[in-house]
Amino acid sequence: MKQSKISMAVAAAILVGSVGMGVSASDRIAGTRVSEPSTAPAVATTGDRYVVKYRDSAARSQAAALKNALGRAGLDRPLQATANASARAAVSAQVLRRTAAPGWHVVTTSRRLSASESASFLRELAADPAVVSAEPDLLYQHMGMAAPAAAPNDPNYAQYQWNFYNPAGGVRAEQAWETSTGEGVVVAVLDTGIVQGTLDLANNVIPGYDMISDRRVSRRATDGRVAGGWDLGDWVEENYCTQLGAPPHPADVSSWHGSHVAGTIAQETNNGTGLAGIAHDAQVMPIRVLGSCGGFGSDISDGMLWAAGISVPGLPANTNPAEVLNMSLGSGGQTTCPALYQDAINQVNAAGSIIVVAAGNANGNAANYTMSACNGVISVGATRITGGKAGYSNYGARVDLSAPGGGGSVDGNPNGYIWQVTNGGQQGPVAGNWILRGMAGTSMASPHVAAAAALVQAVVDEPLGWQDMRDLLKETARAFPVAIPASTPMGAGILDLEALLEKATEVPCDPEVEVCGPDATTIQNKVPVPGLSGAAGSEVLYAIEVPAGVSGPLSISTSGGSGDVSLYVSFDEEPSAGDADYSSTRPGNSETVRVANPQAGTYYIKLVGVRAYSNVTLQARHN
Question: For the whole model, what pTM was predicted?
Answer without folding.
Answer: 0.82
